Amino acid sequence: MGKGMVLGTMIHGAGERRTDWRHPAIPSDASTSFDFYKKQALISERGKLDFVFVADAMYITPQSAPHYLNRFEPLTILSALAAVTSNIGLVATLSSTYSEPYAAARQLASLDMLSGGRAGWNAVTSGLGGTALNFGHRRDMHPEHGIRYRMAAEFTEVVRKLWDSWEDDAFIRDKDSGVFFDPKKMHEAEHDGEFFSVKGALNIARSPQGQPVIFQAGKSEDGRRFATDTAEVVFAIDGEIGAAREYYMDMKKRAARTGRNPDELLVIQGISPVVADTEEEAFRIREELTATVSLEEALADLGRHFDHHDFTQYEPDAPFPDLDGLGANGFRSDIERIIKGARRDGLTLREAAMREAAPKTPFIGTPEHVAGRLEEWYRTGAADGFMLIANLPSLLESFVEGVVPLLRERGLFREVYEGTTLRDHLGLPFRENRYARAGEAILV
Amino acid sequence: MGKGMVLGTMIHGAGERRTDWRHPAIPSDASTSFDFYKKQALISERGKLDFVFVADAMYITPQSAPHYLNRFEPLTILSALAAVTSNIGLVATLSSTYSEPYAAARQLASLDMLSGGRAGWNAVTSGLGGTALNFGHRRDMHPEHGIRYRMAAEFTEVVRKLWDSWEDDAFIRDKDSGVFFDPKKMHEAEHDGEFFSVKGALNIARSPQGQPVIFQAGKSEDGRRFATDTAEVVFAIDGEIGAAREYYMDMKKRAARTGRNPDELLVIQGISPVVADTEEEAFRIREELTATVSLEEALADLGRHFDHHDFTQYEPDAPFPDLDGLGANGFRSDIERIIKGARRDGLTLREAAMREAAPKTPFIGTPEHVAGRLEEWYRTGAADGFMLIANLPSLLESFVEGVVPLLRERGLFREVYEGTTLRDHLGLPFRENRYARAGEAILV
Questions:
Q1: How do residues B284-316 score in pLDDT, each as one tens digit?
Q2: A21 and B181 in contact by Cβ < 8 A?
Q3: Do the Cβ atoms of B197 and A136 come within 8 Å?
Q4: Phi/psi at A31 (nearest 5 deg)?
Q5: Pairwise CA distance, residues A384 & A6, whole Å
Q6: Phi/psi of residue B133, nearest 5 degrees
Q7: Whether domain A6-281+360-443 has CATH 3.20.20.30
Q8: Do A102 and B135 lie within an 8 Å CB cutoff?
Q9: How far is B335 from chain A (nearest CA, A)?
Q10: What is the C-alpha separation between A161 and A189, in angstroms, rounded?
Q11: What is the interface pTM, i.e. ipTM, of the complex?
Q12: Does domain B6-142+155-161+206-279+360-443 fall into CATH 3.20.20.30?
């Protein structure tokens, strides 16, 4: 908690909910509008937020929600945003199941270098089985959940080795003597593992923050283990303070058990704040955002969590169907949450689908009210900070202009950027090069 | 030739030659300096040039020249440049041997979208066998030259299918009716070939230019066949007008033989112009650029063409060694040119290596002289245009300020950008969506 509350913005184009794009204040082509992404990033930077974040997936069907059908790829759009911002962190989602570690390490390092040390990597394992079809495999060859996380652990290990290919003082660049670099400070990866083998050195140096910051959002047992072993920022969307505290406590405990400093594993919550001058106005805005969801659309969105399962085959007003383990190789934690909630509250399929479609947020009301809730979550062990999912530009603006100043008054958030890198903003330590450390150890 | 001369800039950081970085006017960290890349792009855009271009490779050894050891990845740096430029084309090198078509199609399309239709793709097959080591393979599993080009042809076919996933009017985005897109205008790739299989639709639409422009530089028989079947701009570095005319004629003939309009296959030459107020000054500048190359460095650079062959094992003052097919799986056309030149002119190894190290250019002298040579090449069938390899910022500036206005006076080059896309600049047609064409054909 040394650096105060973490605040980032997920820029999510025309929105996660199927009907967000119809809102009068969202450009209907927001998901491929550079101007939209730039505007959201500049509002966030004006608020001195820690980072902007771009989510990702690599499989669509005609039933996918509008934003998924047609959107920017994260590394390209974030590189473009690097050029028009100067301080804010830039977090790119990239799959460890369907990428090559050398190419991934390189693009993330290149974003990190060109932004002066502002890159982060949200490591995902690709929950959609259909992704396999786009990457040369049969659908049933999509690796099983546990294997995906084993791949992710090894992938991340290789990427970090590659990021340490060059010690920080490897490049001497002395024009007079003609010495460009010190070959003793170049290190080849020499990795030969279960899933990946990489022998060479990366052809790009480390940035001012040493390595990009690794983000992770796995909530299953496999996901939590991977996150506590590897990530520096973990996030979840729990929606209520009790579940958030449970998650927070669990992740911090796991970090301590693996011998890490729990302060160096930041736990944040994705939230959808709705801020307005009055409580009534805030609720009216939320109403507007869900007015047009049909049952058909709600069922399609529900199906996506279950790896595109077709829910129209069931009677909508009968109890939530028994799915018998179906989709367990998809977004497992979402599936468990949905089924558990439906059983507990005795919901019909229609009720479960519409509940999932409605934006659930305790962060709704006046700036004072929302700032108070954030402080409560932050001070009582529910989160080290928040990722704002506020694709309505006016909602991001009202948060930055209404809530952020109140957080400052309460001593919870920075007045100015005190450092230049994403690690500086987050209060995470510079990541030492493993070989430099090894060298020093020998000298001691 | 309808649109006049093509002019682009290769931005190449601290330079291809091993000692360029020592020049007083080049920042020694140019290869990872966003400011350097931005400045070169803005000079080029001020001159109304067609494009900037970023080369690439994915394997280094401690013997690699400085620029190769530590440089930006093309798609990330070009996305950043997209945000700070408004007209100039952006051409990214990407390997068809060590990438996935879905990921490649997507990043190139994303760059194309965020730049408003300014992207190009330089398709390469990765000449360095060591690349295999960084991508999970044994070195001897680097695919053989002919196979790499077969892969390239199929890779490009899949990428283009994916780029046509959405017809240009597929996205309706009518907020009132709630119709976001027309499912009949979404097309899955359904590709199942020798090397690649991709089933899905790309999750990004086409840009205002339809598809990115494909560049290619293969000079071997395989390379030329691939280029004439697939590319829209081909380039070579022939260094003298006779060889350039042969290449030009050959490529145009091949295009015609495959049934293409030869005007839609632009043939350009990479050149290193050295422009100064006087001829003496120009020659002095060139002298400065090579003053410090040692034999050892020249041999290492020579070796890179031969897939990192170690030339220090030979007597430098004996005749150029008989290599017996060695390195033929690398950059084959370079190898043939070097060996042929050494045999023809009876060179020793030292002479061949130093010849390769020296910047060879007939485009040296006053602006009038260089403009005259360019006009000669352009008007007598040696090239449709030129890619400037001028990493000394002052050389790019003196070309843009001295030579470009003279080309305008001669009616050879544009005064202003007349269109907004890279295709507009190059005079290449908008690339129709294959499915839209098919639909129209049925109506006729």
A1: 888 887 776 788 888 888 888 888 889 999 999
A2: no
A3: yes
A4: -70, -20
A5: 6
A6: -65, -30
A7: yes
A8: yes
A9: 24
A10: 6
A11: 0.91
A12: yes
